[in-house]
From TrEMBL:
GO function term, MF aspect, one: DNA binding
Alphabetized Gene3D superfamilies for the sequence: 3.40.50.2300
Domain spans labelled Response regulatory: 4-120
Signal sequence region: none
InterPro entries xref list: CheY-like_superfamily (IPR011006), NreC/VraR/RcsB-like_REC (IPR058245), Sig_transdc_resp-reg_C-effctor (IPR016032), Sig_transdc_resp-reg_receiver (IPR001789), Tscrpt_reg_LuxR_C (IPR000792), WalR-like (IPR039420)
Pfam families referenced in this protein's UniProt entry, alphabetically: GerE (PF00196), Response_reg (PF00072)
Record's keyword annotation contains Disulfide bond: no
Domain HTH luxR-type, chain residue ranges per copy: 149-214
Keyword list, A-Z: DNA-binding, Phosphoprotein, Transcription, Transcription regulation
Superkingdom as given in the UniProt entry: Bacteria
Keyword Transcription: yes
Protein name: DNA-binding response regulator
GO terms (BP aspect): phosphorelay signal transduction system; regulation of DNA-templated transcription
Length: 219
């Protein structure tokens, strides 16, 4: 199936460049562009893309708020945040808002296409080491555990909590399976149940949740 992409960025050169690169890739089609967050929300509603490439700093409505509205209104569209720096504090806020990951604006065409495919498949884009580094740095924004988070943790089994901690530490399903000496399919089942019980969209949000609930300590 063709992955339908919407590009939201206030810079015309960025939109045009990404559009050309993605349309040249097999199985990917750019179906629309937006010049600000408000237009991005409207375009998602009208075009129903699979993936939204979302710039953070845009006029009228920034990418964080636009991401929050898109995630709340459309359970299908995945948001992939565009940023200039891999440790941008706004990226962390976007992940909390529901983005599935982030991509540097200087990414190669292959990396861009791979990122779109990964996010469209429902996975988090971030490499484990980058995920850990980003979340560790900016989870300090939350000074204390959040009561709702602690309450929801109680819904997890002991093994599910263990898997959640390992996700937050940046381990892949295969690595978690090896560490716990179980089949990878078993870990996939645990991850699915964790996401459902905690009301989360993907592994990135699960990692953020674990840090904010202080299951994992930044450092």
């Amino acid at each position: 199936m063709t992955i339908r992409v919407l590009i939201a960025d206030d810079q015309a050169m960025v939109r045009e460049g990404f559009s050309v690169l993605l349309n040249a890739m097999p199985g990917i089609e750019v179906i629309g562009e937006a010049v600000n967050g408000r237009e991005a929300v409207a375009q998602v509603d009208a075009l129903r893309p699979d993936v939204v490439l979302m710039d953070i700093r845009m006029p009228e409505l920034n990418g964080i708020e636009a991401t929050r509205e898109i995630v709340a209104a459309d359970g299908e569209a995945k948001v992939l945040v565009l940023t200039t720096f891999d440790l941008d504090e706004y990226v962390y806020q976007a992940l909390r808002a529901g983005a599935s990951g982030f991509l540097l604006k200087d990414a190669s065409a292959r990396r861009l296409a791979d990122g779109v495919r990964v996010v469209a498949a429902g996975e988090a884009l971030l490499a484990p080491t980058v995920t850990r580094r980003l979340i560790t740095e900016f989870s300090r924004i939350s000074a204390a555990p959040r009561t709702p988070a602690l309450t929801r943790i109680g819904d997890l089994t002991e093994r599910e909590t263990e898997v959640l901690v390992l996700i937050a530490q940046g381990l892949s399903n295969a690595e978690i399976a090896a560490q716990l000496v179980v089949a990878e399919s078993t870990i996939k089942t645990h991850v699915s149940r964790i996401l459902v019980k905690l009301g989360l969209r993907d592994r990135t949000q699960a990692a953020v949740f674990a840090y904010e609930a202080r299951l994992v300590t930044p450092g």
